[in-house]
Amino acid sequence: MSEKAKEHRYESGLAVVQSGKVSDPGIEPHRVRMTDKSEKLERTANRQVAALFIASAVGSAFSIFAYFAFPITSDLGTVRSNTLWLGFGITLGLLGIGIGAVHWAKTLMPDAEVYEPRHQSRSSEENRAAAIEIIKLADQESGFTRRKLIRRSLYTALAMFPLPAIFFFGGLGPNPADTLRHTMWRKGTRLAKDPYGTPIKASEVTEGSVFHVIPEGLQDLTDTKLEEKAKAAVLLVRVDPSVLKPIAGRENWSYDGIVAYSKICTHVGCPVALYEQQTHHLLCPCHQSTFDLTDGCKVLFGPASRPLPQLPITVDAEGYLIAQSDFHEPVGPSFWDRSAN
Q: 199: which DSSP letter?
């Protein structure tokens, strides 16, 4: 079609609209579904919907079973198994309810389109009473009251679905309270490379380099290994000593420009693992909290509310980096400390 023809067609249509001669197209003809034609297919769809709701209930129950059957230990393989089977149960619980509701709406609920004028003012009592009757009629037509199998299976699925959360949230444990005030770091504990546990000397830490370190001996733990690592993980960085601005009372907490700070973000506990060498900023990748390494790891940007806790360090007679003590404040998210107080 030429541009001139298109322009003429557009102007003709615009003229019709402006003249008010566009007729109401009305509602499209209703398409009768197979379940509307056949009672047998209607009963089949009824059973299918109920089966989906029952599958949802089974999935929720299985997720509770998986929570106990596949406990998480220090072995990373148990983490994968726990995640896999918990996820399978929760997915089945969600899909059963979702697909069941959609299948019910598509095959059994009335699908005829209707419309009514919208009134801006409050309706009369007669109209309000009529609306209530329409709602009652819609309930009857939907079959929710009449289809006992679907209704009961839906109630079962909805009742079972939130139950796994009771066990999952309970498994998070009690409020940590003072447990985050104490880690494996002790006076004289050597700083070791993560994950192998090899002690690190000050001479190995060059300016601008970053090491992820853990307390020496952490690798020998069994049941509490993951828990202790989650609290004691540290970032070790060496900078030019002249750029450091030590907080009063912490002048001897670093060694020749080498500083150690908790790796656990004070926002929600994500691992702070990004270091920008030129600006000396540490960045949490989860919510972009940014800390100034040269100024006590104070918060420069983001939702974190307090600096990263600093680990006091020095060297021993053999030149290995060691801790002077444990952290002097709780590690991890600030809300634990606030709730404890």
A: E
